[in-house]
Amino acid sequence: MQVRKASDRGVAEHGWLSSRHTFSFADYRDPSQIGFSDLRVINEDRVTPGKGFGTHPHRDMEIFSYVLEGTLAHSDSIGTGSQIKPGDVQVMSAGSGVTHSEFNGSEDEPVHFLQIWIVPDHTGGAPVYQQQHFSDADKRGRLRLIISPDGRDGSLRIQQDTHVYAGLFDGDERATLTLDENRHAYVHVARGSVELNGVKLAAGDGVRLRNPQMLELTAGRDAEVLVFDLRAQELPQTP
User: Fold this and answer.
1) How far apart are CA 62 and CA 164, in angstroms?
2) Is this prediction's pTM over 0.85?
3) d(CA 129, CA 107)
4) What span, in angstroms and rounded, lies between the C-alpha atoms of 229 and 218?
5) 232-236-237 Cα angle (round to 5)
6) Each residue of 134-179: pLDDT tens digit?
7) Which of 113, 137, 161, 174 would you call most buried, defined as having the most Cβ atoms within 10 angstroms of its Cβ?
C-alpha cells in the first residue's frame, strides 16, 4: 500500500488552467511516476471561465472526464457535441485517431474536473464517444461501477480489463470492495477526506495497492472517491 500525497503531485500553472498531475504528463516528468498498470494519467484540472483546451488530437487511448464542478463543453471530429456536468462521466475511446476540444463556456463559473487516461488492450479501431449520468444517490455510501470492459450494470465500456468505481462517503457511510487474485488497485480521493483500510487520506491523495484482497472505505467527510481495479502489472503498455 503506497500513498502518494496530493502535495507531491506535479504542478502546472498556465493562467487559464491550473493542473495537478498524479503521473508524469507534459512537462512534468518523474521516472517513478509513469502510471500504474494500465492507468496512465490522472490530471486534476481547473479551467477559468471562457477558456479551455483548443482542438487537439489523440489516438490509442481510453480517455474519460469526471466533472466535479461547473460545466465542460466537448466537441470532437466524430460529430459529438455535449455538455458534461457534475455526475456525468464521459468516455472517449480515441482508437485510430480523433480530435476534440474541451471548453468552459461560463462567464463566471470555473470548471473543476479530472481527466484520466487508460491504455487500451489493442490499437486502432474506430473512435467511440459515450456519456452517462450517475446520480449522487446512486453513489452514496457505496462504490458504483461506472466503467468496465463489458458495460455491465449500466457502466460505460472501455477496451481494457479495468473496472472503475465512484463513491460518496460522509459520516458513518462505508463500503468494501473485494478484488480477484492477481489484481492491483488505485484509489484517488477527488475531494473531502476518507480512510482506506484504516489509513487517512485527503483530497488529491492517491494510493497504489498491489494484490489487495479487500478495500474498505470509512470515516468519510464529504468524500468523493474513484477506485480503479487493474491488471496486476507494474507499468502500462507503451501506447
Assistant:
1) 12
2) yes
3) 27
4) 19
5) 115
6) 999 999 999 999 999 999 999 999 999 999 999 999 999 999 999 9
7) 113
